[in-house]
Write a structure and sequence with these properties.
Layout (H helix, E strand, L loop, with lengths): L5 H10 L7 H13 L2 H17 L1 E2 L6 E2 L5 H4 L4 E8 L2 H10 L4 E5 L18 H8 L7 E4 L5 H14 L6 E4 L15 H9 L7
Parallel strand pairs: 3-4, 3-5, 5-6
Antiparallel strand pairs: 1-2
Helix pairs in contact: 1-2
C-alpha cells in the first residue's frame, strides 16, 4: 500500500497494530482523524495517554481502577462475602452489565495455559486464597465464573483444590446450559449434556 505521506504511513502502521484493525481500516481511521477538528484528535490522544499512564490496578481484586481500590471493592453496599472469580476485566464488565450481581470480584489476569507458558504463579491465585483465608476475611462464597474452555476448566479445577479446605467458604460455579430463546436441536452436545446434569429442580 502506497501512501502520499510518511506521517500517514506511520499513523496507519501504529493503528493497524491494534487487534481487529487491518491496514485498510487503519487508513480510514487515520484519514478521518486528519479531517476532524484539531481538538478532536488532541482529545483522543490525551485520553489514550492518560488511560495508559494513569490507570492502576485495585489492590484487592486486581481489576483496573483509577485509585488504589476500585469503586466496587470500596462500595460498602456490595456484598463482600460473595467473591466472583473471573479471568479478565472484560468479564467484570460483562457481569456488571447484567445488573444481577451485587457481590465483589477477583480478577485472575488470565487462565492456566501450559502451551502459552502460563502457570498458577503467573496469575492472582495466591492473593485470592489469602483473601478468602485471612482471619478477618468476610468471604463466605467464591463463585468460579471462568469460560468453559479446556484452559478455563483446568483453572477452575486448580482453584477448587486450593480453596476446598477453607472453613466456612462455599465454592460454586456459574450455571452452564441452554441460553434464553435457544432451540435444543441447535445446541451442541456438551452444552446440552451439561444442561441436563446441572438441571434445576422445579419447586412443587
Amino acid at each position: 500500500m502506497e501512501f502520499p505521506s510518511k506521517l500517514i504511513e506511520n499513523a496507519v502502521g501504529e493503528l493497524s497494530r491494534l487487534p481487529g484493525i487491518g491496514r485498510k481500516t487503519a487508513l480510514r481511521l487515520a484519514l478521518h482523524l486528519l479531517k476532524a477538528e484539531m481538538d478532536t484528535t488532541a482529545t483522543l490522544a490525551e485520553a489514550l495517554a492518560k488511560m495508559r499512564f494513569e490507570i492502576t490496578y485495585c489492590k484487592t481484586c486486581h481489576s483496573i481502577s483509577d485509585a488504589e481500590e476500585c469503586g466496587i471493592c470500596a462500595n460498602k453496599l456490595r456484598d463482600h462475602s460473595l467473591v466472583c472469580v473471573v479471568s479478565d476485566v472484560r468479564d467484570v464488565i460483562a457481569i456488571e452489565n447484567t445488573g444481577q450481581y451485587k457481590g465483589v470480584y477477583h480478577v485472575l489476569g488470565g487462565v492456566i495455559s501450559p502451551i502459552e507458558g502460563i502457570g498458577p504463579s503467573d496469575l492472582h491465585i495466591d492473593s485470592l486464597v489469602e483473601r478468602a483465608a485471612g482471619e478477618d476475611s468476610e468471604v463466605r462464597e467464591v463463585i468460579l465464573a471462568i469460560s468453559p474452555t479446556m484452559e478455563g476448566d483446568t483453572t477452575a479445577f486448580y482453584l477448587s483444590r486450593r480453596l476446598r479446605d477453607l472453613p466456612n467458604v462455599h465454592i460454586s460455579t456459574i450455571a452452564r446450559g441452554i441460553p434464553m430463546g435457544g432451540e435444543l436441536e441447535y445446541a451442541d452436545e456438551i452444552t446440552l449434556g451439561r444442561s441436563i446434569v446441572d438441571r434445576l429442580r422445579q419447586a412443587r
